[in-house]
Specification:
The complex is a heterodimer of chains A (112) and B (111).
Chain A lengths: L4 E3 L2 E4 L5 E6 L6 E8 L3 E9 L2 E5 L6 E5 L5 E5 L8 E8 L7 E2 L3 E5 L1
Parallel strand pairs in A: 2-11
Antiparallel strand pairs in A: 1-3, 3-8, 4-5, 4-9, 5-6, 7-8, 9-10, 9-11
Chain B lengths: L4 E3 L2 E5 L4 E6 L7 E6 L6 E6 L5 E4 L2 E5 L5 E6 L8 E7 L8 E2 L3 E6 L1
Parallel strand pairs in B: 2-11
Antiparallel strand pairs in B: 1-3, 3-8, 4-5, 4-9, 6-7, 7-8, 9-10, 9-11
Classes of the chains: A mainly beta (112), B mainly beta (111).
Chain lengths: 112, 111
């Protein structure tokens, strides 16, 4: 069974630009969560999607958004990038919400 | 204030030594999960503990869930360099709909 796939693995963007990250969950998993990981803040919850609906949202500004498609694939978008958005963005999939989470390798975003 | 506090934050030990890391909260969790993360990779699930007082073993790793389901510990026996990584605890506190992650313990095992 294939694991969680995140694309791209690495990304360099300029301040003010926008970026879209993609996550393909494990086959059969319908819940997808996104996390931001930085050395200073650790793993911070961004949002969770289940059956194309956002169930929860963390304490991040509106520049961070996401969506889930009917095949459970998910994307997250960050607009008007700031230097502080540089981080490892992790996607996790679960069969259903609040069950064990399986992570992808992450997308390393660098904002310059 | 973090919902899940892990200690110690950093730990550097010699190969063959034993160690324990802790995950503490003032909130009750319906379950707690432990993950290990290596540099540049996503966290990998090690174990889930569900019942208060539960003990689970995974080779040289022993996980325990506190009786009150507010804390957990991870004990590693005879640590090896391959155990090096960031250890994270996580769980959904009562009534929450998403996982909260602990502050992490960064373990280095020196050959």
């Amino acid at each position: 069974k294939a694991g969680v796939t995140q694309t791209p693995r690495y990304l360099i963007k300029t301040r003010g630009q926008q970026v879209t990250l993609s996550c393909s969950p494990i086959s059969g998993h319908r819940s997808v969560s996104w996390y931001q990981q930085t050395p200073g803040q650790g793993l911070q919850f961004l949002f969770e999607y289940f059956s194309e609906t956002q169930r929860n949202k963390g304490n991040f500004p509106g520049r961070f958004s996401g969506r889930q498609f009917s095949n459970s694939r998910s994307e997250m978008n960050v607009s008007t990038l700031e230097l502080g958005d540089s981080a490892l963005y992790l996607c996790a999939s679960s069969p259903t919400p609040n069950t064990e989470a399986f992570f992808g390798q992450g997308t390393r975003l660098t904002v310059v | 204030t973090q919902l899940l506090e892990q200690s110690p934050q950093f730990l550097s030990i010699q190969e063959g030594e034993n160690l324990t890391v802790y995950c503490n909260s003032s909130s009750v969790f319906s379950s707690l999960q432990w993950y290990r993360q290596e540099p540049g990779e996503g966290p990998v699930l090690l174990v889930t503990v569900v019942t208060g007082g539960e003990v689970k073993k995974l080779k040289r790793l022993t996980f325990q869930f506190g009786d009150a389901r507010k804390d957990s510990s991870l004990h590693i026996t005879a640590a090896q360099p391959g155990d090096t990584g960031l250890y994270l605890c996580a769980g959904p506190p009562g009534g929450a709909n998403n996982l909260f992650f602990g502050t992490g313990t960064r373990l280095t095992v020196i050959p």
